[in-house]
Amino acid sequence: MSAPFSGMVLCAGLGNRLRPLTDAIPKPLIPLLDIPLAEQAFAALRAAGVSAIAVNTHHLPEQMAEAARTWAARYGNIPLTLSHETQLLGTGAGAKRLYEALGRPDHPILLHNGDVVLSAPVSELLRHHRASGAAATLLTVPAIPGEGEVWVDAEGGRITTLPGRSGTIVGPETLPDRRVSYAGVCLLEPWVIDLLPDEPSCLIREGIAIALERGATIAALHHDGFWADVGTPLRFLQATWQLLKLGRDNWPLPAKAPEGDFVAADSTLLCQGVAVAGPAFVSAAATLDATASVGPYAVVGAGCTVPAGSHVAESVLAYGAVAEQEQTRRILIGSTLVRTG
Fold first, then answer.
1. 3-state class (DSSP) for residue 331
2. Are strands 305-306 and 287-288 parallel, antiparallel or unpaired?
3. pLDDT of 6-54, one tens digit each?
4. Phi-psi region for residue 77, left (φ > 0), alpha (ψ -120 to 50) or beta?
5. Residue 32 in contact with residue 118, Cβ under 8 Å?
6. Rounded CA gap, 130 and 291, in Å?
7. What is the topology classification, in CATH, of domain 6-229?
């Protein structure tokens, strides 16, 4: 039997940059090809053998809590702990409160941001962490402009530099060689979580960076595969289009691909009698009128309708949305519409 670990999925954020989409649903429930963002974290943690999961809530907490209960049951009845934040605590104090809600386990804790989706298996991160003996292990991705200063050594396996509370922290005995970005997934030993303050704070600046400053080894595992932080409408569309191009046969994410028709790029497929231009996805639970037009770069999710004469291209329909007339470069979730071009 593998060594135990617990998981924490951070789902308390407001998702302000995705408004008005997040006025009606929590950001972790935004669907990427019909699958809510945070469900991918549950699937990944389950595949790695997680012993328990804790989730924090704040915005629209009942929706978030109900979804977490559904996923915990779907992925093997994972023991679930919910923690509601009446005041937003940030990634630092939020993680500390979840750790305490889990009963302060004495094994590693895997933290997964609820708005991050990626193809890297959690089990690989666990193996890397245990082999390194590190206090924390960060999953990293190629450097993103405007993100905080995160650097690794020449081998790429050790974090040398992190943003701290009052400036950049450089660890001892290692030389910065290459800039990367934190992917929103990490493993933490319990004593690192204990460094975090109880008031609103940042996990990196006020926890992991302090451990680095005190001489602890902070390991890194680099990921060059599919990764998306769906923080803005444009990023949401970009991530969607990446998945459309990959299709069902190359589906990269932990939760299985949704049921429906994937239409490959530069091709056309009849879906419910409608010629759909790829890349596109049409859910098995969607409804298309015979005179509708769909694609390319279109997603018609479960419960959605494309009525007579309507056209959907470079757009996403989700959660029962109805496409009225022309929908180009738009995100329509339920009755909420965002124009992206």
1. strand
2. parallel
3. 999 999 988 888 888 889 899 999 999 999 999 999 999 999 999 999 9
4. left
5. no
6. 57
7. Spore Coat Polysaccharide Biosynthesis Protein SpsA; Chain A (3.90.550)
For the stretch 211-215, contacts whose Cβ atoms lie closer than 8 Å and that sit 24 or more positions apart, written own/partner, are: 211/135, 211/136, 212/159, 212/162, 212/169, 212/171, 213/164, 213/169, 213/171, 215/171, 215/172
Exposure letters 294-311 (e unless 16+ CB within 10 A, then b): bbbbbbbbbbbbbeeebb
Cα angle 115, 117, 316 (rounded to 5 degrees) comes to: 80
Q: CA 62, CA 84: separation in Å to the nearest integer? A: 10
Q: pLDDT under 70 in the chain at which residues? A: 1-2, 176, 341
**8 Å CB contact between 136 and 186:** yes
Residues 268-311 have pLDDT tens digits of 999 988 999 989 999 999 999 999 999 899 999 999 999 998 99
Listed in sequence order, the residues at least 6 apart from 7 whose beta carbon sits closer than 8 Å to its beta carbon are 41, 45, 50, 52, 53, 54, 109, 110, 111, 112
Residue showing tokens 């954020």: 13
pTM beyond 0.85, yes or no: yes
- The encoded tokens of residue 261 equal 């028709």
Amino acid at 54: A
Contacts of 284 (CB under 8 A, 6+ apart): 259, 260, 261, 302
For tokens 């997680």, name the residue. Answer: 50
